[in-house]
Fold:
Amino acid sequence: MRPALAVFAVAVAAQWLLPLAGIWQHERVIARGTTVRLECMAPDPYDPLRGRYLAVRPAEGRVPKPEGMVGRDAVPVWATLEAGDDGLSRIKSLSLEPVSGSTVIRLVAKWPRWGGQTSPETVFVEWPFDRLYLNERLAPDADKLVTERFREGQDRPVAEVRLLDGRAVLTDVLVDGVSIREIVKQRAN
Structure:
């Protein structure tokens, strides 16, 4: 076999195997992962470049810094989540070293900056998800529903997330315990 043909065959195989491996990993987290619920913050405005989706930002964005974190760069951290009496999960602890558990999620910690200064006690965390993709026709109505709830001061929506081996997959957004997909479908009819 010619070397060019072998390189071409490897490239073709990689083009198929890499996306399939990502899909497999995503579906594995959904099938086997532990479900946690996180309170969400206000929605972001519509972004025409990314398609129709519902912006999802967990309310816990600023947390006490993990023990031993130094420097100004963004660093990976492992957060252990704990469910409260209200059923919502919150960050119990952050670690710079990988930890295991059914409610562990890998996040990115960044130092906050205010006028060039950093706060030594707290860090911002970046969650591994920020949007829930919906049907093109339903996404604007879902965004409008969430925005109205924030304006009226009603309970915040809740992100339903599956966790497995530090990986997270956003599976749904709940409003008063009901899937936002179902609410928007009922409103459309």
